[in-house]
Amino acid sequence: SDRFQRFCLALRGLPIGPINGPKNTLGHFKSQMLAPQRKALPIASVASRIVEEVKNNDTLIIVGETGSGKTTQLPQFLFDAGLCSDGKVIGITQPRRVAAVSVAKRVAEECGVELGQRVGYSIRFDDVTSNSTRIKYMTDGLLLREALLDPFLSRYCVIIIDEAHERTVHTDVLLGLLKNVQNARSKYATTEYDHSKKDSLSEKGCNGLRQTKLLTCQDTKLAPLKLVIMSASLDARVFSRYFGGAKAVHVQGRLYPVEILYTYHPEPDYVDAALITIFQIHLNECSGDVLVFLTGQEEIEFVERRIKEGTDQLPDEKKNVVVVPIYSSLPSEQQMKVFKPAPSGFRKVILATNVAETSVTIPGIKYVVDPGLVKVRCYNPVTGVESLIVIPTSKAQALQRSGRAGREGPGKCFRLYPESEFAKLRDSIIPEIKRCNISNVVLQLRALGIKDILGFDFIDKPPRMAVVKSLEQLLLLGALTKDYELSDPVGYQMAQIPLDPLYSKALILAREFNCLEEMLIVVAMLSVESIFYIPHEKLEKAKVAMRCFSSPEGDHTTLINVYRASKEVLDKSRAAGGDEKMAERGLSKWCKENFINKRSLKHARDVHSQVHGYVKQMGFAVTSCGDDMLQFRRCLAASFFLNVALRQPDGTFRALGSNQTVRIHPSSVLFRSKAECVIFNELVRTNQNYLRNVTSVDPLWLPELAPHYFSLREP
Ligand code: ADP
Ligand code: MG
Known about the structure:
GO terms for molecular function: ATP binding; double-stranded RNA binding; hydrolase activity; RNA helicase activity. The chain is α/β, with parallel strands linked by helices.
């Protein structure tokens, strides 16, 4: 029949004529094509058992090998079993944005529905859901925010905490919060609800805590909340113990043998070693895709360029390599490229951060290159300095990584360190809550009415010192009153803006200083990795290009210049009647000529439009200070007074808060300047302490703009 023919054409990827009938006919084809794949997943054979367990247990722990189908299948099983028949939603949290987006897209395809309808996702700065969404993928941080507005999480019937083994701060806080919500909801479900008591319900909140202003409880018929904790680590005991002996189900995975190869000696330059290994695999091993674990966007982009250059040197028949990056801040339309099979005869090389360890499963991988490193946040509560550092992975991570090579057949994993090093690795990672700045979390818990932070039922408690430090910081920023209550309005406003408290405060101040337009750009540009792309071999050219934007005041105004120039390029091409595609192409060209990282700029534009939306919603007028850069710098000083550094006689700087010796990073426009006093937004720790994103300020402003902090000190 005609339908069947179309189906065959679609299968072969050929263009098909216009289709009559419902718009998503193609979606149905696709979902039919995916059905056999779904049936073959290990979790499919235990689907009915798992559904029963979820029905019978308030909290269930599911442990299963990565790729067994937990993330994509379980929500569909629960939906099909009628768990959201009352219009409620199944929420699934992910530690990373990229996982939430890619999985939601996949599941929408499997269900044959349009993304944003029955299946959707919601991440900070990007919400693709609707009233009809029943399966909602989101980041753990986003669900935490939703709890501020809806403390009983009343729209959810089931919440699935995925990738719990990653133990991000947000996951850990959610676990504690959800435990309370679950208790509260089962209490209300068993007692007949009396409308006259509406106030007492919302006043009590879910933790027996008083509700704060932000909280409203619209829904009064609350069914008990089901919790599912999913983890790829084999040790379910911590979670089971935390949830009062909750039942754990194990899903058997399928894994082919993976040959592990080590280097003879430690590698002095792991990026170089990774490049050599990639080419060795390409030239000497039989077909199969390669997955390389790197530590971040900058490194991935560097390796991406080097592979492309290297491939150009190869004979024509060996040029069959495609490189695809994947990391969390990659714009979402680019993320899906990683799942597309390479053209026939080509080898796909995937450059990934640890997002590919367990969060996303990429088909077709036969070779894994693992330098054995991971970038983590690390916080020193004594100095109050948070930095990103690269550390060795844990044994569990190394095993997960090598496992990626054996999903579809026997594979090989190249660990770029000697075998003796493996034994020295720690068994599993330290939960993030024990090693990061928790100011943001403390602010959110306070907004939820939780006053005794140290008494909160954490699965692992943050260090006392970190809690004390963050309370102190929030007090200095004016988010808390002297009695550690959320301040009105600043504290409430700060809790509503999904940014680091320093940035939220900067936006609030910028309104007073009449430079919100400028500060919005700065906050967006600071929220992304490396706007400038400075290749070593074109260093001089890049520096010349950079000079067109650089501002003598510092990096913040420089970033504003870049943002505005890029916007002008877009506006011009739109004004000339070009369509969006042409505008984007023009921007790409402009980025290339000016050594700007287009991916980062795109991300910054997304962040900007979202944060712009938030502040407008809060009733802030977005005005500009025009050419009055003095005003803007004063606003920066008022916002970032916690990050001030003063020049020392020897030319280095001293960071006032932490009393550390620091230098201005060579990438800063103030690197060679004579600035006496600067504010900064980032302290990078390599072999030295470097300040990035620096602007010079007048030290005399500080006691005036932050008297509570500087009156007792000498600036
Ligand atoms: P788990 O959560 O247990 O690690 P997933 O549910 O994420 O497993 O993945 C199940 C299967 O779905 C995997 O075999 C994976 O290859 C496939 N898959 C997931 N997302 C995509 C995608 N976007 N494109 C193609 N295949 C995918
Ligand atoms: Mg998963």
